[in-house]
Amino acid sequence: MNPQLLDALVQTDFPELELFASGKVRDVYRLDDEHLLFVATDRISAFDYVLATGIPQKGRVLTQMSVFWFELLRDVVPNHMVTTNVDRYPAALRKYADVLRGRSMMVVRAEMFPVECVVRGYISGSAWKEYKSSGAVCGIQLPPGLKESDKLAEPIFTPATKATSGHDENISFEQMAKMIGPDSSRDLRDISLAIYKKAADYARQRGIIIADTKFEFGRTGAGITLADEVLTPDSSRFWPADKYQSGKAQESFDKQYVRDYLEEIRWNKLPPAPALPADVASKTSEKYVEAYRKLTGRELDV
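-> structure tokens emitted (302 positions)
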């Protein structure tokens, strides 16, 4: 597959359906009172802005990787996925099968918790910045002398508020408990840590370090339910294990080529967001697909 030869899907349009929500990457449509249709586009955001260029196959990677993890983690926590089989979608959508196949899923509508459940096994990104200034992350005191990208003695749970635009804001567990209650907070923390440990152990056997990741949960008839995307290059920091070296930033299977390009052209990080050259979009696409192959052992369904 040569991503340069494939068009990116950056907009969806299904007139038969009511648009329920539209995010930086996903468009969510209402199917009925109990079900939604998640469609992962190829949009990519950097520095809080959606760029003018999409990344071919990115939405398919996000959807198919989430499906893989939903299946692997089913014994840890229920999830909201009903089916990804387009033939089981409402009849009016069959004519869009080529667009929907591989990048969409029908899900149970959940009452979502207003927090991001972040688990960190290594210190990087915003956690590294916070640690350098305070010696703690989200109110959790960490040992002195840690270096960038160091593995933590035990994974830590560092929740964040959900931002509709801009960055999510890190909060303490105590702040989370005030938002959603102490019992739900403890449940989400324990489930998040259990998911991370199982996924991180699996990924390490496949040559990938999951440095950190974020989960979203809601309530359905099944109780606390894992929702949205799970353990993808958009929601996680994936590092190639054979190139890992503490004390510096790591290579990663995500948007790094895009961020590097935007820094090189000295974009002022104000709208309008620039377009990407074909080679940058293609290389980023290859990184997403490579992460999918390495983690799942499968070929992407295109």
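The radius of gyration is 19 Å.
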